[in-house]
Design brief:
binds S-adenosylmethionine, seven-stranded mixed β-sheet, 5 helices, Rossmann fold, single chain, alpha/beta, globular
Length: about 220
């Protein structure tokens, strides 16, 4: 399988039932209206180690609610968490700070974490890339193209792939369910069980097995 030195990923994070209830009182988030979301165990169990070169950098988008999971996933994929590479300040069309409702504070930022495997410093090409990216908030979940460009400037022409991509970009391989993918990836966490208890939402097979107290789960359709 082809090996990449840059992995750029924007996972379809799912929210836990408690977070959801806090936001909108429903089990499924509004994200599910836009695309299927995935449990963190499913994301964690993608065989990313198979596509990473010995020296490889990971750029992983996360929301602040998923920060802990994002670091766990960074490590599960074989990377050491290093820093926050980019912070996106979302702007409106009129260049004002855009705001999303949050349970505690009004939110205007998303983060892209940086992890490495092997030694990536020797591939670094630029010292003038800013962490902060100010860019307009456009389509739901769409990340600013400036971040992809910054990664290209930072590391030059290394073999790179965007995971969970929704569009093809020149110079990048892509994988996702909304694009024609260059590679196949299947999570080892493929069996999902959808629990119907309102306060405990076991989406993974393992979570359901360890829950053990739920009489209402229903296996997914065959
Ligand atoms: C947060 S969005 C990515 C947005 C993208 N970075 C952009 O800027 O437009 C997550 C993507 O993961 C995709 N996705 C969800 N489940 C998937 C699966 N099982 N396999 C591949 N892609 C999946 C979603 O359909 C969605 O396109």
């Amino acid at each position: 399988m082809k090996k990449y030195q840059i992995i750029y990923a924007d996972p379809p994070w799912s929210f836990s039932s408690k977070e959801l209830q806090r936001y909108n009182g429903k089990r499924f988030t509004s994200m599910d209206k836009h695309y299927p979301t995935q449990h963190k165990d499913w994301i964690k169990n993608l065989p990313i180690r198979r596509i990473t070169a010995d020296d490889c950098a990971l750029f992983l988008w996360t929301t602040d609610a998923h920060l802990k999971e994002a670091i766990e996933i960074t490590e599960a994929w074989g990377f050491k968490y290093v820093t926050i590479a980019f912070v996106w300040e979302k702007k409106t069309k009129n260049n004002k700070t855009a705001v999303n409702l949050g349970a505690w504070t009004l939110k205007s930022y998303e983060m892209c974490l940086f992890g490495t495997k092997g030694t990536m410093l020797k591939y670094k090409k630029a010292n003038n890339i800013y962490q902060k990216v100010e860019a307009e908030r456009t389509k739901h979940s769409k990340k600013p193209s400036e971040v992809r460009k910054n990664i290209e400037l930072l590391f030059g022409e290394l073999p790179r792939i965007e995971l969970f991509a929704r569009q093809k970009t020149e110079g990048w391989d892509v994988w996702g369910n909304e694009v024609e993918s260059d590679i196949n990836l299947t999570s080892r966490q493929s069996r999902a069980v959808y629990c119907r208890r309102p306060e405990s939402f076991c989406i993974s097979y393992e979570a359901m097995m360890s829950c053990g107290e739920c009489p209402l789960y229903k296996p997914p359709p065959a």
